[in-house]
Hints:
Layout: H1 3-19, H2 21-28, E1 37-42, E2 52-53, E3 56-57, H3 58-75, E4 79-82, H4 92-101, E5 105-113, E6 123-127, H5 133-147, E7 151-156, H6 160-163, E8 170-177, H7 181-187, H8 190-209
Parallel strand pairs: 1-4, 1-5, 5-8, 6-7
Antiparallel strand pairs: 2-3, 6-8
Amino acid sequence: MPKSIRIHHSFNRLLTAAVGFAAAVLILTTKAGAFDTVILDPGHGAHDRGAAIGYVYEKHLALDTARRVEQLLKKEGLKVIMTRSRDVFIPLQDRSAAGNRGRNAIFVSIHYNYNRGGSGAGAETYYHFSSSYMLAAYIQAYLVQRTTMTNRGVKSAGFHVIRATTKNPAVLVECGFVSNSTERARMLTGEYRARIAEGIAQGIVAYRKAD
């Protein structure tokens, strides 16, 4: 079997595992809307640390990951807009406003998760509007593939940044649990954050190429 076919079949299996058979069929037979701009939204910032254990802050992890995704997408010829590129606080309404300003764009909010009991593990990707489901599924599938994190699936939620971004596909990615000691040790390494960024970027590019 040619390598390209093997890769395609492998991704089909991964996507089916990530979102379920019926949804995978719909995704693989649905064409993505054309876009040339990606609006990246690193969660939290400044006094809003996000998930935190000791001196490990979600705001720093999210910004570093988003910067890595930015560079990868630029290499693919995509325009990238960052809602923040340094440690500043951006109100939620300003983040969603940025998501709505772009034309021919998608909006991807990057976060890290937290569970009080420390038992949570893995990656999950959220969407609000059905038009964003396909983007979420592609990002989730490639993120899990690249990092081998536990697959927590694609989920619907009403987070402000994806609910109020109405003019473009919008998703929110949770890249692992700061509260999980094993995942925290991994995400503190640049090599692992690079894998996370690669998974997100590869999912975005695959979504763009979907036909």
